[in-house]
Amino acid sequence: MSGELVSEVSTEGGGASAAAPSAPPVDAQSAGVVPQRTAPLSVAFGVVSGLKNAVLPAAFVAFSSSSNYAILIALGIAALIFAVSFVLGYIRWRKLTYTVGVEDIRVESGLVSRTARSVPFERIQDVSLEQKLLPRLFGLVSVKFETGAGGGEDLSLSFLTEDEGERLRQVVRERRAAETAPVAAEGVSETAATQVTPQEEAAEALFTMGPRRIFIFGLFSFSLAVVAVLFGLTQQFEFLLPFDLWDFEAWEERLIGQSDALSSLGRSAQIVGGIIAVLSLIILGIATGLIRTALREWDFLLEKTPRGFRRRRGLLTKTDVVMPVHRVQGIKIGTRFIRYRFGWHGLKFISLAQDAGASNHDVAPFAQLDEIAPIVEASGFHLPSENTEWHRAAKKYRFDGALIDGGVFLLIAVPVAIFAPPFFVLIPLVMAAVFAFAALYSWQFKRHALDDSQIMSVSGLFSPSSMIANRVKLHSVEISQGPIARKRGYASLDFGLAGGSFSISGVPLERAREVRAAVLETIVSKDFSQLENA
Amino acid sequence: MDTPDTIPTPATPASAANPAAPAAAQEVAPHDDAALTQLHPNYVHSLRLTALLTSIPVLIGGLVFEAVIVEETPIPAGVVMSVLLILSLIFIIRVPMRRFQARGYNMSADRLRVVRGILWNSDTVVPFGRVQHIDVDQGPIERFFDLATLTVHTAGSHNASVHLPGLNKALADNMREDIRAHIKRDTM
Known about the structure:
The complex is a heterodimer.
Chain A: H1 3-18, H2 41-64, H3 70-95, E1 97-100, E2 104-109, E3 115-120, E4 126-131, H4 133-137, E5 140-146, E6 155-161, H5 162-186, H6 192-195, E7 204-209, H7 211-220, H8 225-236, H9 248-263, H10 267-297, E8 300-305, E9 308-313, E10 318-323, E11 330-334, H11 337-341, E12 344-355, E13 358-368, H12 369-378, E14 390-392, H13 395-419, H14 426-442, E15 447-450, E16 454-459, E17 465-470, E18 477-481, H15 483-488, E19 490-497, E20 500-508, H16 509-524
Antiparallel strand pairs in A: 1-2, 2-3, 4-5, 4-10, 5-6, 7-8, 8-9, 9-10, 11-12, 11-17, 12-13, 14-15, 15-16, 16-17, 18-19, 19-20
Chain B: H1 42-69, H2 79-102, E1 104-107, E2 111-116, E3 121-127, E4 131-137, H3 140-144, E5 147-154, E6 161-168, H4 169-182
Antiparallel strand pairs in B: 1-2, 2-3, 4-5, 5-6
Helix pairs in contact in B: 1-2
């Protein structure tokens, strides 16, 4: 990964592109627009990931064969994989070009079968930049053109130089602004005027997380994932261990030997040992939480720009995501058992665009409600006011839910009572009581409300989570009933929400119809095509 | 069997086989905004034909069991086959009728309502203003009965596509045109 390699590849690339008449045809109307390649260093990153692939097979050969030449063969295999991935990566890089045209961005790729994808500017919602650790060291970014297509179908280019990434983002914004300006002018969008300014727009910081906040967040993000990873690794690299992991007799011997040694130390020493083990697990969990949170959330900054919300975060992998305000379909406020006691909540936006694989956008992962309120306000929603008229689920739903939740454990209790030793039957019986009680009690916290522009629902026994959707942005309303619900006269309301699901269960049938009628009136009042600038 | 005429001409000769004529289907979801329109009576036939085709392999399996394996088991001969036969008769005759009765739709000036399901009943309303695109599909069996399935697609994740089967082909085409006329402009 020396500078030598870099310069070598780049000169080669430059020479080739000058002498390449076979390069994809330049569109007539965008004369003067030249197809461009991604940064030459991308080849190197391809090779690095190729190397990762080479390590395992090589290690396998090296360790599994007893031949004297095992190491040599392994090295040979690694070299071969390295060479192949380098050549393939180089060809792929040579064959991938992108063109910023007058109306669209085109990416042509493929050695044997060529693909050309064109994305019109007016469909590009925005450009996200992502920097993983290694590319970041070399000043490269991967650029993703958000079209809201969902399903990972968005066009992306890895890797471009930071300047080029920023330039593309600017180009897309200018083109977009130029195209939407006439449309926006007839709408009532007050942001339209500022949209046209091509320069870095005035941004207003909505939410930031400094080191102190991230530290607190990390403390609440206790995670034992490391233990699972370690366990997975021992399985993966079992062959490297000096003993057989699955030889139970040997384990027994080892453990009995251990416990002999332990018991000779006496009871108090055993207790101390146990406490130390538990403590170290807790410390491990907290440390994992702190590190993972810091890696993900470092320098968290959420801004409101005229183009929408812009979120930057990350310590090693930096991400920079923009989401236009009108793309926010709904919001979710969630929390967890312990952090709720301290008033911490997380705010997410629901939209069709994806956020690092997740379907919801984290906009304030760890905040107090008074910090969340202005963000919600900025996204065109509002938190339920004090005089919101809340409706509860049907009483019969409460009873049925408790009966079903408890009944499952009662059913389990029957075979346990017959086959297991006495007193074991208490376990499912207690579980039945606990679950039935939880179902009865959680009913208190389950409610929904309808106001002029929103539909809201809250649920959760120990940690309430709420969801708010804009009535006009829903796409369909369904009332569904299972056999029990039908007999007992309650129903589920399912709303068609772009990018998420919104369902309210156990609503009395009459109320469900009322809500549906009201919501449908709102939906019908505005055609889909008018939503964009709403 | 091909009766391209418009809506209800119930009790075609073939439906004489079942006791409850489609007329009994008025009680479809006796609630909500407006009365539901029934599907084309041919829909029962197409459901039955589909059920018949799917139960044939099961019945053949039963026959094979009776002929080859039954002697090695303590089950008396004929029991398995008769159970299978009764089940498939229910599946072919009774279930399609119930499904037909449970289904219905209502198309008003600005929305389409689709009701379906015997045990798990769902009642979906899609406003025309949210329809992204519309399909009219015809499988081979539907084609034989001159039926079609109308599917409206929305941008919502839940109910991304709402199917309405058992429409007369000409009616489905008309409905498509009506809905299309409501969609003012193609965005997205």
